[in-house]
Amino acid sequence: MNETFIPLSVPNFSGNEKEYVNDAVVSEWVSSGGSKVADFEEKLAAYVHMPRAVACNSGTSGLHLALICAGVQPGQEVLAPALTFIAAVNPIRYVFAQPVFIGCDDTLCMDPDALEAFCRNNCEVRDNKLYNKATGKQVAAVMVVHVFGNMAAMARIMQIAQQYHLVVIEDATEALGTYYTEGPYKGKFAGTIGDVGVYSFNGNKIITTGSGGMLVTSHPEWAEHAKHLSTQAKTDELQFCHDEVGYNYRLTNLQAALGLAQLEQLEGFIAHKMELYNLYHEALNGKYGLRILPFQKDIRANHWFFSLYLEDYPLERDELIAALAAQKIQTRPVWALINQQPPYANCEAYGMQKAEDYRAKIVNIPCSTNLPLLQAQRVINAIIALAK
Ligand SMILES: *Cc1c(COP(=O)(O)O)cnc(C)c1O
Fold this sequence. Notes:
binds pyridoxal-5'-phosphate, single chain, 388 residues, 18 strands, four-stranded antiparallel beta sheet, alpha/beta
């Protein structure tokens, strides 16, 4: 077969990337110095309507910093999703806390009903703190992931968090550009609603710096603390004095150069993803035993990843993935549930039925921002042909 390979999701460097990276190289500012990191922080903060953003070297390190700034202590518990990338959960362990897994709803994000039921039935409030009745541990925070660029039910989740004294950390690593168009949070971006939010610029995300992340928070002192921790917690430039254990979580000037060029294109990327999504939706949703999972109605979603749901399709998930791979079309299953993986197998998990079903039946289909519509049509034709 002479068909070209169609990847699942690849970077798109069709803007000013080469120019800005070249500027950084020519200026010889390629590491943590140079003006581009601060510039990227300012432009990203402005894009999501926040006063400040703190750059870091990955989404994972941003989430680690978020948990430290939130004051999550060793031995405490954090409510977290199981149907997501494991980098949303590992940082909970970095601060020696434990995840308690809460299932998802039809948005693939944390189910607010399960969250509320867990807090009400399995926990008790004492002295304005929430305690897990089974373990006696304090439940300090909830880690909300905006899966595939969809928005979790933030109005409900914020109300539950307030009632049960939980810090809200938003893993918005997949949802840069997603915002509410209606309701109490109209105009608010994913990542800017809870106490602290984190974006990722990994290679497969909607914009990329190779690797990188950004933290935003409604608490100015947390932003200050995150910046301090990400730069080795240095208090004196000349004498090299440090007042706590810091990290080398800095984004480099080279990465920020890429990020600035990518951010200029973000709205265009989202527009193209919406075109691709609409094409797939039109051709496949409700046909051949398939559904294309929707994004929430009250948001402008960034449409990062598309979920083909095999409701009553003749092939199983892995058969379809293999058959498409044979035609040079790359797809993938949704993540194995985190509560079933060795590091987390002993953790409590609550309300997992939908997560298990979606894990078994979702295939993510090609969604690159530079995927031509004709190539998406080839994917559609292949999926339809395999149904017959
Ligand atoms: C990508 C991702 C992360 C981690 O981001 P990195 O930049 O790769 O460290 C965390 N959580 C989720 C849900 C992600 O998809």
